[in-house]
Write a structure and sequence with these properties.
By secondary structure, the chain is of the alpha+beta class. The protein has 2 domains: 140 residues, 60s Ribosomal Protein L30, Chain: A; 250 residues, 2-methylcitrate dehydratase PrpD. It has 16 helices and 8 strands. It has a 6-stranded mixed β-sheet with strand order 3-2-4-5-6-7. The protein is globular. The model has no long low-confidence stretch (mean pLDDT 94). It comes from Longibaculum muris. One of its GO terms (molecular function) is L-cysteine desulfhydrase activity. One of its GO terms (biological process) is L-cysteine catabolic process to pyruvate.
Length: 422
Amino acid sequence: MEEKVYQTYVQVLKEELVPAMGCTEPIALAYCASKCRDVLEDEVISVEIKVSGNIVKNVKSVIVPNTAGLKGIEASVAAGIVAGKTNQILEVIANVNDEQKQQMREFLQKIPMKVIPIESECALDIAIHLYGKNHQAIVRIAGYHTNIVYMQRDDEVLYQSGVVASSDSSLTDRSLLNVKDIYEFANVVKIEDVKDVLQRQIDYNLAIAKEGLENNWGANIGSVILKTYGDDIKFKAKAYAAAGSDARMSGCEMPVIINSGSGNQGMTASLPVIVYAQEEQATQEQLYRALVVSNLCTIHQKTGIGRLSAYCGAVSAGIGAGCGIAYLKGGDYETICHTLVNGLAIVSGIVCDGAKPSCAGKIAASVDAGILGYYMYKNGYEFKGGDGIVSKGVESTIRNIGRLSREGMKETDKEIIKIMCD
């Protein structure tokens, strides 16, 4: 394939498949707060936090790891100020001791903190203003979880991005992504170019899935699936993906490898493929190539949707996993196309109402749709262009999903946030 496309795909995987500990929206808040504390260089006496509605939605109900069970925007910011190590980025609060956990609670009790919801062109928008005894500082993140676009100390602007942060503008161009090239790339990629990032995904995400199955986390969707339906591979694939979310949404302090800014998406895109590979005794190379398909198909769908929206990201990842499984089982380009379209036709109505334990149930449903989409095509059945939001051609259907999310679900997103805040 073209060298430009090849190198772009390698870079996209390296940019997207990165480690994070905890739900990425609370961690983005902690990262922003930690950076702002570094800029301030003073004792914090009050805090002002401006956040877009999707940040409110995705932080409200999830436990922040390494805080002894704290939830919410204020807790996330307090964790970053008290214990954040800014250079660890999305693992900013990965190393916290018991004394710091107590200091977080004291900070929340003593320091005035004001949260201000804002209207923003960015679904992901965070601005933290710290007031110290002698100085003040502002840091803003927008567009994606680590994208610092503005820093100020007192009256001096230290940094300001010249680009409106309504998209992942500083990342590698995603417009080159398409299913045909993804399939070709998976066939020809040199394993040494992707091995490290994919092996880390296997190790991290499999570890937290096992934790979710073996212990009491969240609503225990993963273990309920296995207890209820047995360990048939189709159920086991759903259970492992759900179990990772069970643990992560309820404060498990193990890191995961994310996809498109989300740990749930990272686990959903990878764990079903890993489980299938183990069951069918696939080679490590076969697993790597299947993970290339699942991850890039997920990223391709999410590019048109955006990082945060009213459209559940688990759907994109579950369908991506279905594509990876199809590839692992010998499926060709046509098989992957039909798997993707069939799966999207089934579950594209699932809404995102924030990060919380029920994400695990949505993950299970999405993985099920991805697997069903594959077996439909294997048995000679498919959803065709003109069936609802399905258009002729896989790329047309993917574009429809992006349009549905960006345009059609704007008001849905606002209403979800209103309901959650009420």
